[in-house]
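Regression test case RT-17, inverse folding.

Input:
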């Protein structure tokens, strides 16, 4: 969202139409789509930490940039927008907050001494918001008036962010508390008001002649800070329409946003999923959440019934569902055409300044490497002793092992050791985070579930929420969220407010680099072959689900847009056939596709977000590339990564990633990830055979 004029990744733009006003409704609506999106991504990984969404608004991605607030700070500290949709409280746990040592809990008094101080801040922010309206029409008067309006805007957003974060964090600690819930709602409403109050600014900046702004920047170093922001706004000129046309387009927003809403309602409310028998022969009504547990079942009958039962529902409703998806695709086409883009893809990527070649390169390179995935499917077939692998056989772990619970203090020690290649400065900051109450560690009654990193530019540091229970996955989650926190930390230290966030395209890189380093360390220090196999299995599945599978989704998305743009109808049968062809191509000859499985394309909520799913794959590949070079001790790798972390949104995301030595327009980072995948499968197979042959190390 560099396109957000550097303000904040208003990652939530897509659901914004539904978001306005009432947060809870907005978030739940978002949940229809996003809760699922998240699951797809994380598949069985962490329950909370997806990429940020992207734009699906009728306006240019940055035409209404100051939609700060809600999303805003969420985005800033990395990828929690979607997880905010997950605001379900954890089931009551035995330990209450006062039974947990202070060092494992947040100290929110760092943000505001008490509620009175927060109320005073709220009142002050309201006044700042009111003052914004009075600045309308002043931007072109002089360099000083432009600068003071921008600074006032930044100040206002920063204050509102901090109010939102404090209220949100307090609410998440006990979601049954109506008082904190009320404050959080008020803060969200304030953010919406602030966003509305500054909505005139970009249109007004667009009326200023570029030469005038340029000459003002020459004379004012303070104004020159905004150079990238101005350039980004300027970029929109040729896709900006007349005032009346813009008004008309804005008026279509509520109507065209309906497709995603309809899909969300169907998926989460109206579609009737069947009752199947669980492992114990008990009746179990399928839900989205249960589905994601059951496809991991070692009992093939159970996972088959879950998969086929779920997808038969989509297959049966393929005519209606394809009409909804087709409407969504036409929405993308409509706005792309209205704004003079050559394709929906080009329009969708315009906001963050990503060339379509990035997506094309990803799809092409992954396709060239599909034999590597086929080989993995063949290995699964062999190890599982199957004639044919079905879609529902892809998730079940090949190796099971009881792992001891990992005490939190041990996990943090391991993570610090694993991140040592990043250098003493990075590790020292992480240690500070662990020691200085950046993290609310344990489950407590009514605490928000999942994990995230969140904060505001003016906060003393990012805040990490965990629900740590001591699993290996929890340990990885700590490393992952700490990656987001470090990204935010470096960015906020180095950048002025206007660039103090980072784009969706970059959001999952730092977190994944941390995970890459942790996995490498764990593999090197594993106690036995079983542990090694478990670690390898996690890494292999991570690449399968995040790189291969998300690229397949991206390819489907691209193809259906191209078909529609070529004037073809998107029918239920046509979409199922196309999706089936893709699944077969990706997974190869050892996969036998069930008829119902072809309807999976109609179940995936990503398609109601406008071309963003590819960023899961690109982020993962970028992170793998960076992580491997750091592990190998390649000259400049650490320094490059730190530059990347500190760049915020001061450049376009592709350029920011180049600071870390990664060029996502080239096949290299993707090829490297594919090599790693092969290597991991090699290691897995060798170890597996060794263990089977009974010669495993003790
Ligand atoms: Zn993340």
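Golden output:
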């Amino acid at each position: 969202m560099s396109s957000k004029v550097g303000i904040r990744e208003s990652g939530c733009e897509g659901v914004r139409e539904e978001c306005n006003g009432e947060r809870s409704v907005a978030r739940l609506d978002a949940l229809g789509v996003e809760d699922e999106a998240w699951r797809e991504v994380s598949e069985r990984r962490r329950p909370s930490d997806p990429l940020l969404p992207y734009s699906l608004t009728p306006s240019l991605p940055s035409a209404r940039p100051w939609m700060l607030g809600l999303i805003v700070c969420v985005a800033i500290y990395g990828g929690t927008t979607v997880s905010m949709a997950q605001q379900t409280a954890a089931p009551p746990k035995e330990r209450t907050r006062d039974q947990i040592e202070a060092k494992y809990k947040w100290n929110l008094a760092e943000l505001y001494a008490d509620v009175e101080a927060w109320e005073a801040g709220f009142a002050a922010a309201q006044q700042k918001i009111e003052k914004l309206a009075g600045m309308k029409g002043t931007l072109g008067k002089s360099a000083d008036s432009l600068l003071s309006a921008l600074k006032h805007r930044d100040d206002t957003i920063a204050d509102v962010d901090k109010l939102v974060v404090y209220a949100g964090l307090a609410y998440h600690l006990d979601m049954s508390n109506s008082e904190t819930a009320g404050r959080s709602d008020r803060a969200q409403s304030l953010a919406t008001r602030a966003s509305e109050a500054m909505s005139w600014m970009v249109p007004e900046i667009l009326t200023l002649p570029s030469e005038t702004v340029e000459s003002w920047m020459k004379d004012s170093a303070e104004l020159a800070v905004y150079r990238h922001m101005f350039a980004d706004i300027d970029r929109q000129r040729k896709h900006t329409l007349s005032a009346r046309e813009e008004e008309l387009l804005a008026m279509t927003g509520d109507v065209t946003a309906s497709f995603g809403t309809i899909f969300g309602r169907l998926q989460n409310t109206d579609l009737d999923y069947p009752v199947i028998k669980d492992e114990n022969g008990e009746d179990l009504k399928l839900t989205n959440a249960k589905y994601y547990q059951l496809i991991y079942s070692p009992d093939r009958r159970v996972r088959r019934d879950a998969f086929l039962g779920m997808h038969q529902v989509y297959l049966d409703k393929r005519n209606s569902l394809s009409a909804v998806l087709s409407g969504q695709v036409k929405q993308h086409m409509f706005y792309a055409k209205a704004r003079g883009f050559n394709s929906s893809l080009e329009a969708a990527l315009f906001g963050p300044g990503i060339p379509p070649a990035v997506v094309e390169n990803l799809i092409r390179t992954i396709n060239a490497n599909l034999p590597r995935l086929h080989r993995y499917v063949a290995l699964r077939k062999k190890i599982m002793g199957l004639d044919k692998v079905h879609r529902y056989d892809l998730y079940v772990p090949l190796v099971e092992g009881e792992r001891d619970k990992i005490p939190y203090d041990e996990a943090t020690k391991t993570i610090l050791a694993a991140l040592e290649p990043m250098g003493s400065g990075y590790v020292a900051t992480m240690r500070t985070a662990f020691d200085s109450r950046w993290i609310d560690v344990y489950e407590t009654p009514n605490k928000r579930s999942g994990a995230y990193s969140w904060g505001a530019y003016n906060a003393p540091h990012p805040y990490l929420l965990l629900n740590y229970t001591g699993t290996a996955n929890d340990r990885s989650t700590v490393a992952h969220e700490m990656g987001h926190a470090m990204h935010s930390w470096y960015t906020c230290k180095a950048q002025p407010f206007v660039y103090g966030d980072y784009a969706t395209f970059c959001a999952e890189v730092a977190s994944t680099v941390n995970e890459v380093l942790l996995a490498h360390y764990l593999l090197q220090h594993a106690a036995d072959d079983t542990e090694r196999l478990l670690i390898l299995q996690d890494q292999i599945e991570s690449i399968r689900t995040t790189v291969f599978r998300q690229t397949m989704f991206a390819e489907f998305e691209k193809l259906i847009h191209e078909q529609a743009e070529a004037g073809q109808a998107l029918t239920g049968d046509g979409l199922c056939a196309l999706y089936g062809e893709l699944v077969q191509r990706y997974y190869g000859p050892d996969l036998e596709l069930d008829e119902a499985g072809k309807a999976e394309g109609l179940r995936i909520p990503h398609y109601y977000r406008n071309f963003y799913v590819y960023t899961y794959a690109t982020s993962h590949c970028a992170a793998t590339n960076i992580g491997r070079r750091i592990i190998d001790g390649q000259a400049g790798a650490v320094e490059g990564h730190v530059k990347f972390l500190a760049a915020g949104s001061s450049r376009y995301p592709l350029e920011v990633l180049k600071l870390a030595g990664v060029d996502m327009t080239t096949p290299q980072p993707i090829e490297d990830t594919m090599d790693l995948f092969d290597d991991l499968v090699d290691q897995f197979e060798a170890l597996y055979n060794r263990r089977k042959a009974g010669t495993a190390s003790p």
